[in-house]
Amino acid sequence: MKNSSFFETVYEQIYNYVTNTDMWMNVGMVALKIVAIIVISRMVVSVLQATVNRVFQHRNGSKLQIDQRRVDTMRVLANNIVRYTLYFLAILMVLQLLGIDLKPVLVSAGVLGLAVGFGAQSLVRDIITGFFIIFEDQFAVGDVVTINNMTGTVQEIGLRITRVRSWTGEVYIFPNGTITQVTNFSLQNTLAVVDVSVAYEEDLKQVESVLKEVLQSARTELTDIVAEPEILGVQALGPSEVTLRVTAECKPNTHHAVNRNLRAMIRTEFTKRGISIPYPKIVMQGKGQSPGQA
Predict the structure, then answer these.
(1) Average pLDDT over residues 265-290
(2) Residue 68 sits in which domain range?
(3) What is the CATH number of the domain that holds 65?
(4) I want to staple 245 with a disulfide (CB 3.0 to 4.6 A). Which of 26, 148, 224, 235 is the partner?
(5) For residue 23, is it left (φ>0), alpha (ψ between -120 and 50) or beta?
(6) Structural domain count, the chain
């Protein structure tokens, strides 16, 4: 009898709880508010990020001209701050709807943050280093850099990590605190250097004259060249060739393409003018024949 009355009491309590209309109304309202907070926060984040992108949009003809590299970096950083801040506020609002008192949570978070700060010194170092990278404009989004012997294009700079994509597609992620050495290829103009080899039989004055014509054409056709190309003269005397060196100042990180174009233009013009470029030859000498005999 006692067991029967106990189960009846438990069943009655569960039945009353499940059929409590007010309770389910409150649960439904709380769930609806949570969904509304999530949807609205995502919408606000999208609107604010679109506004940030519009603010940092490059405008031609503006009186206030800022380096586009720095603009892109600040745009990415501002979008990250907007997203993290709004999502943090949304989480606090959801916790409040769930009936959690935020005061003890915030106090505990402060104490926990202090304790974590001592244990997560690398994280603090990453953030501080990231701040100085952005503040000092060491490199920016879109720059071609070498970081810790890894070369690629900067995709993202945050307060904690830097993301670099290599030309073959690999993505390197560096905690900012581990960045000890950076080479930036996008800050200053670069120098294209082309070594041109000709046979010893060629007249060097004629070769230099042809090279001057090619370089004048290249100065007009190749927009990446920013100064008049120069012929430095004879660079080396090889076993079967004379090497002349040509240089051209280019826009940042464009010297590889300029090198390729210059080589192609020089090769085409040399072929037209009959200037021979040395290549390996095999001379066969039979018994009783001199090297010049067939």
Answers:
(1) 76
(2) 2-100
(3) 1.10.287.1260
(4) 235
(5) alpha
(6) 3
